[in-house]
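Whether sequence alone determines local backbone shape is best considered at the level of individual chains. The sequence in question and its structure tokens are set out directly beneath this paragraph.

===
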Amino acid sequence: MREAGIRVRRRLLAGALAARSRGRHMGTTVLIVEDDHNIGNLVRTYLERDGYGVVWVRSGEEGLAELGRHAVSLVVLDVGLPGIDGFEVCRCVRAASSVPVIMLTARDEEVDRVLGLELGADDYVPKPFSPRELVARVKAVLRRTRPQASAAELCLGDVRLSRDAREASRAGVALDLTLKEFDLLACLLENAGLALTREQLLERVWGLEFPGGTRTVDQHVAQLRAKLGDGLRIETLRGIGYKLVRP
């Protein structure tokens, strides 16, 4: 099994280098690695409907091979695959590439989420899931991981945020934000229009664990709302989390 894994890694390294040498400015292609026909077909349908190119395979071995054949922008990876499981596939991908990975799993145990993230996954979606939410997660991960010239400056409505200067303003007037209020605003601006769960905000702004849990998120959102006034609206999604509404 170990020798097979080494061969797979070598094949992936060679394939990734070959893919990197091909056109960088091709359309956005998502690789789905999912053995369940219904789930794979559903994810492919929604991604294609949103304008993404899709390559769908049903095993880890096929997924690694396809990474070498296509200029893939993101991988949607099931954990429970036949043969090489999703964790091992993720490990192989990270050994050769920085392509973003969103893991899908029927197991929602904390240890599995932590393992996936430690192996280099960019997001973790438990089954069953909303295909619309998955597409939104794909967009968010691509925005977060793609290098952008304007990434240091975030603007929406009359709110401006500069990461380099660690400054935020509304209508030209500086906002007096704490460190975490600033990071929370940056996260919401990056994902404007997308629903973010309290757990996602907790992970992205505070790290995987933080004393006070999701109550900390609620408190900081309330404080940020008060300081933003009517500049931007942070909508509460009952039972889910929050969304920064575009003007």
Notes: The two ends are 54 Å apart (CA to CA). The chain has nine helices and twelve strands. Residues 2-145 form a domain with the Rossmann fold fold (CATH 3.40.50.2300). Residues 109 and 165 are 39 Å apart (CA to CA).
